[in-house]
Q: What sequence folds into this?
C-alpha cells in the first residue's frame, strides 16, 4: 500500500528490535556483500530498520552425509525441509525473557525473530513468540513464518520489514474501518 511504502521511505515505521542467534547479530548489517558499483569507494547503505539487537544462545547445526555420523543419532531431529539437524544449544527461555525485558524497557514492542536454520527448525522462534506474547509485545514477526527460505540475510531483511511496517498498516486499517457502519465487522 501507499501507507507502507511511505512509512518505509520516510522511516516512519514502528520501532523494532532484532532477535537472532548468538554470534550473528551483525549479519543483517553486513548483508551479502553485493556491490553494484564494485569500484565505488563511497558505499552508502540504507539505515537499518531495527534499533536494538538481542543475541540469544541457541544453535542448530544442519547435517549432511559428510557430518551426520559425528553426532549422536538419538539427538538428531528432522527439519521441515526433511534435512537432519542437531540442536547443539537449546533455547534458554530465561535468557529470552531477560533480553525481551531489556527491549521493553526501551519502549520497543515490535520484534523480528531470525534464527539460523529456522526455515527448517521453527521450534526456537515459536518459543520466543510465545514468551513475547505473554510479555505483551504487540508485533512478533518470525522469519520461519514470514519468509521460510534458506538464506538468512534476505529472510531476516523481509522479517524486519514486516515487524517495521505491519503495526503501521494495522493502525491505518483500524482507522479506515472506523469510517464505516459497524467498523466493517
A:
Amino acid at each position: 500500500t501507499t501507507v507502507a511504502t511511505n512509512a518505509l521511505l520516510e522511516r516512519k515505521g514502528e520501532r523494532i528490535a532484532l532477535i537472532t542467534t548468538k554470534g550473528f547479530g551483525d549479519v543483517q548489517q553486513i548483508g551479502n556483500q553485493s556491490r553494484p558499483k564494485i569500484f565505488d569507494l563511497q558505499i552508502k547503505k540504507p539505515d537499518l530498520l531495527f534499533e536494538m539487537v538481542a543475541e540469544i544462545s541457541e544453535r542448530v547445526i544442519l547435517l549432511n552425509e559428510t557430518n551426520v555420523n559425528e553426532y549422536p543419532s538419538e539427538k538428531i531431529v528432522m527439519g521441515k525441509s526433511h534435512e537432519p539437524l542437531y540442536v547443539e544449544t537449546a533455547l534458554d527461555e530465561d535468557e529470552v525473557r531477560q533480553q525481551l525485558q531489556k527491549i521493553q524497557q526501551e519502549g520497543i514492542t515490535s520484534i523480528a525473530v531470525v534464527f539460523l536454520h529456522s526455515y527448517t527448525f521453527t521450534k526456537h522462534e515459536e518459543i520466543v513468540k510465545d514468551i513475547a506474547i505473554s510479555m505483551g509485545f504487540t508485533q512478533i514477526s518470525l522469519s520461519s513464518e514470514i519468509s521460510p527460505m534458506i538464506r538468512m540475510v534476505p529472510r531476516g531483511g523481509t522479517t524486519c520489514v514486516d515487524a517495521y511496517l505491519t503495526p503501521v498498516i494495522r493502525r491505518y486499517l483500524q482507522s479506515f474501518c472506523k469510517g464505516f457502519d459497524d467498523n466493517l465487522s
